Inverse folding.
C-alpha cells in the first residue's frame, strides 16, 4: 500500500506541459480572453499591442491595427492628454500609477469610466522602454454611484425642506412660535456664555383685528396677516428674526440690539405698516400695529421676557394703539 509520503513525492514530480508555461502562450491567452483592457506602449506612448476586447470596442478585427498609434488617435481630449502625461511621468520616474479612475471619451462620442493601473515597462536589462497598464470598465458602477449621489442629495433637500416646514408658520411664511423659543433660549445661553451684546424682542399685533374680521371676513383677516408678515420680514436685517406667535400676533427678535436700537428699528416698522394699504379685492384697507419691547437683560428666561413684552403691548393698546411701549 502506498503511503502519504510517496503520494506527496508523486505530486511534486508532476511536470506541466511546456506549452502551458510558455510565456507567449500565457500572454496570448490573457490578451485574447480578458474582459479587462491590457495595453503596452513604447516610450513615445505609441501602442505596441492591446488586448482583443479593446479592438472589439473600436470595431477593429485585428488588434495589430493600433500598433504605432496613440491615445490621440483613439480618444478625445482631455483623456488622451491626461493619459500621455501619466505615461511620461511613469517613464521619467519609474513609479506606477495605481487605481486611477478615468473617464474615456471615444471618437464616436461615447464615454466610459475605467479603473486603471499603469506601470513602467522594463526590458531584460532593467531599462524602462515604455509603459503597460490594465483598465477595468466600471461605467455601471460609476452610474450607480452617481445615482446614489443624486438620491442622497434629494434626500438631503427633502430633509432640509421638512426641517424648514417644521419651524415655519404656514399662513404667514414667518418662523413659528416653537422656533421662537428655541432661538431665544440659544440667545440667552450665548449671552451668558460669551457675555454677548443684548438682544431685544418686540411683541406686536394688528390693531382692531377682530373688527377687520367681522367687517370683511376671515379671508380678509388672513390676507392682512400675510400682508403684515411680509412687511415685517422685508424691513428687518438679515440677522434678525420675524415670527408669527399666533393669531394676529408677531414677534421680531433683534440680534445684538439694546432697547435704543430696538426702538429705532421698531418705529420704522410702525410707519411702514401704517403707510402700506392691504391690497384687498374690494378696497384698500389700512392697518396699524401696536407692540411691547423687552431686552434679554431684563429677564432670566424666555417666559419672563414674553411676560414683560406682553405687559408693554397691553399698555400700547390702552394708550392709543399704533405705538410701541418700551418701559412701564
Amino acid at each position: 500500500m502506498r503511503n502519504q509520503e510517496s503520494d506527496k513525492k508523486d505530486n511534486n514530480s508532476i511536470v506541466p506541459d511546456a506549452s502551458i508555461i510558455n510565456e507567449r502562450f500565457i500572454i496570448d491567452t490573457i490578451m485574447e480572453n480578458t474582459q479587462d483592457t491590457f495595453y503596452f506602449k513604447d516610450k513615445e506612448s505609441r501602442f505596441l499591442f492591446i488586448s482583443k476586447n479593446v479592438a472589439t470596442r473600436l470595431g477593429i478585427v485585428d488588434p495589430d491595427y493600433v500598433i504605432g498609434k496613440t491615445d490621440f488617435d483613439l480618444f478625445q481630449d482631455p483623456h488622451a492628454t491626461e493619459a500621455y502625461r501619466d505615461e511620461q511621468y511613469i517613464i521619467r520616474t519609474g513609479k506606477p500609477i495605481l487605481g486611477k479612475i478615468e473617464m474615456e471619451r471615444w471618437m464616436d462620442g461615447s464615454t466610459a469610466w475605467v479603473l486603471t493601473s499603469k506601470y513602467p515597462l522594463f526590458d531584460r536589462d532593467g531599462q524602462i522602454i515604455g509603459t503597460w497598464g490594465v483598465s477595468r470598465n466600471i461605467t455601471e458602477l460609476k452610474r450607480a454611484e452617481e445615482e446614489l449621489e443624486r438620491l442622497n442629495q434629494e434626500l438631503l433637500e427633502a430633509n432640509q425642506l421638512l426641517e424648514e416646514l417644521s419651524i415655519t408658520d404656514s399662513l404667514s411664511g414667518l418662523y413659528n412660535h416653537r422656533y421662537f423659543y428655541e432661538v431665544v433660549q440659544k440667545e440667552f445661553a450665548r449671552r451668558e456664555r460669551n457675555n454677548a451684546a443684548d438682544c431685544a424682542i418686540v411683541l406686536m399685533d394688528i390693531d382692531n383685528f377682530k373688527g377687520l374680521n367681522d367687517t370683511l371676513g376671515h379671508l380678509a383677516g388672513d390676507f392682512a396677516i400675510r400682508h403684515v408678515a411680509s412687511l415685517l420680514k422685508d424691513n428687518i436685517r438679515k440677522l434678525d428674526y420675524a415670527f408669527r406667535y399666533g393669531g394676529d400676533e408677531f414677534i421680531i427678535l433683534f440680534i445684538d440690539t439694546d432697547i435704543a436700537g430696538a426702538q429705532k428699528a421698531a418705529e420704522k416698522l410702525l410707519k411702514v405698516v401704517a403707510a402700506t394699504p392691504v391690497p384687498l379685492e374690494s378696497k384698500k384697507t389700512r392697518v396699524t400695529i401696536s407692540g411691547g419691547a423687552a431686552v434679554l437683560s431684563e429677564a432670566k428666561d424666555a417666559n419672563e421676557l414674553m411676560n414683560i413684552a406682553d405687559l408693554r403691548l397691553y399698555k400700547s393698546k390702552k394708550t392709543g394703539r399704533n405705538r410701541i411701549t418700551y418701559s412701564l
